[in-house]
Amino acid sequence: MGGTQTSSSDYDGVEFWSVPERGGWLTKQGEYIKTWRRRWFVLKQGKLFWFKESTVTRGSKPRGVIPVATCLTVKGAEDVLNKQFAFELSTRSETMYFIADSEKEKEDWINSIGRSIVQHSRSVTDSEIVDYDSKQ
């Protein structure tokens, strides 16, 4: 039994080190201690990973991962945090805050994450749709 088995279960076989949909530096607020830390983020196949370093390899260990399908909204949060280039990502249970390096980076991340939310939440709900009209 390798120790990597349990931690990699969150990754669902996503090769986060290879050709991400989006990658870049963001400053993220800590979950428990509310300090701001700069992390390298990778969006791939419906998962948002973060790392301490921008050099991501097969052996890299993500510092965290958010399954995008659990997210409800992604939107600007400058007014909430009173910080430039800030945005928030919300699930049913929590809201996470991020700060990009520029307005363009912020918009690009919001668009990429938003697109991923739509793609991955659609695949979840399509299988749950029951259309009584189609049953004669």
UniProtKB/TrEMBL annotation:
Annotated PROSITE patterns: PH_DOMAIN (PS50003)
One matching Pfam family: PH
Record Gene3D superfamilies: Pleckstrin-homology domain (PH domain)/Phosphotyrosine-binding domain (PTB)
Highest taxon, organism lineage: Eukaryota
Matching CDD domains: PH_AtPH1
Domain PH: 19-118
PANTHER family: PLECKSTRIN-LIKE (PH) DOMAIN PROTEIN (PTHR14336:SF20), TANDEM PH DOMAIN CONTAINING PROTEIN (PTHR14336)
Name by which UniProt lists this protein: Pleckstrin homology (PH) domain superfamily protein
